[in-house]
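Exercise 7b. Backbone tokens:
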């Protein structure tokens, strides 16, 4: 349950990443790009700020080129806009928090033969509690819950939250042993969930691409996640997104009744610090 759920420290509807000092912004009419200057330590940098990222790491890299330190942060409304979905950081309000917890609870709840509705209510409350804990205790640049919504441009139309994914900065030695010695931390992906009525519509793919964008913005070169070894559908999704299996759970941890073997999958972004 510790994997689940999210934060957005900014009340505005944009992803705010800290440690970025702007000197000024110059916009071009009719364009989604903005030229900006910012400070990293004592150095002044210039680059592009993209209001909505596209499908590749290279597009996001444009805004942090010319000497970026890798810890650069930028301001985004949406990290990914494609396949008819937009992915952004979770808004910190009661209604959206509840919606996100419901999507994840429905995805991870295991039905039982008796009193299923009651058990689901308890499970959803547990998920919601985990979310609220993350919101209260996680630094904004160490944890993020990303949500996918329908790409509706009509401001009078309610956008429907259809997918959720968690991104956490971790330093677990069980993962670090598969990374280069210079890698001290990585982004761990977990809690990926899509509403049942919206599955098989590229929402999970968009969520994973948003994690790639966030890894570049936060300056992390590696992303990691775990999947059940027998879940071929999920593993195919992650493989197509660029993740590779590097290890499996030890046999003695997965031989218990009801305990499934997991695989550790790692992806290296094309971002170079």
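Sequence design result:
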């Amino acid at each position: 349950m510790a994997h689940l759920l999210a934060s957005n420290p900014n009340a505005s509807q944009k992803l705010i990443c800290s440690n970025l000092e702007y000197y000024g912004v110059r916009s071009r009419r009719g364009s989604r790009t903005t030229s900006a200057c910012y400070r990293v330590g004592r150095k002044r940098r210039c680059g592009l700020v993209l209001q909505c990222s596209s499908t590749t790491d290279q597009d996001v890299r444009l805004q942090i080129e010319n000497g970026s330190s890798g810890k650069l942060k930028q301001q985004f409304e949406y990290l990914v806009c494609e396949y008819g979905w937009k992915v952004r950081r979770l808004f910190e309000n009661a209604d959206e928090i509840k919606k996100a917890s419901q999507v994840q609870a429905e995805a991870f709840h295991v039905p039982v033969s008796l009193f299923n509705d009651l058990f689901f209510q308890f499970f959803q409350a547990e998920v919601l509690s985990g979310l609220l804990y993350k919101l209260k205790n996680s630094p904004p640049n160490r944890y993020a819950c990303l949500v996918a919504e329908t790409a509706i441009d009509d401001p009078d139309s309610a956008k429907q939250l259809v997918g959720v994914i968690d991104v956490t900065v971790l330093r677990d030695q069980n993962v670090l042993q598969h990374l280069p010695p210079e890698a001290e931390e990585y982004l761990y992906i977990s809690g990926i969930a899509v509403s049942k009525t919206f599955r098989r519509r590229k929402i999970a793919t968009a969520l994973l691409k948003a994690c790639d964008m966030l890894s570049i913005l936060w300056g992390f070169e590696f992303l990691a996640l775990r999947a059940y070894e027998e879940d071929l559908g999920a593993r195919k999704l992650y493989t197509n997104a660029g993740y590779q299996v590097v290890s499996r759970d030890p046999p003695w941890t997965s031989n218990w009744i009801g305990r499934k073997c997991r695989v550790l999958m790692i992806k290296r972004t094309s971002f170079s610090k």
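Instructor comment: The CA atoms of residues 86 and 158 lie 14 Å apart. The chain is about 25% helix and 30% strand.
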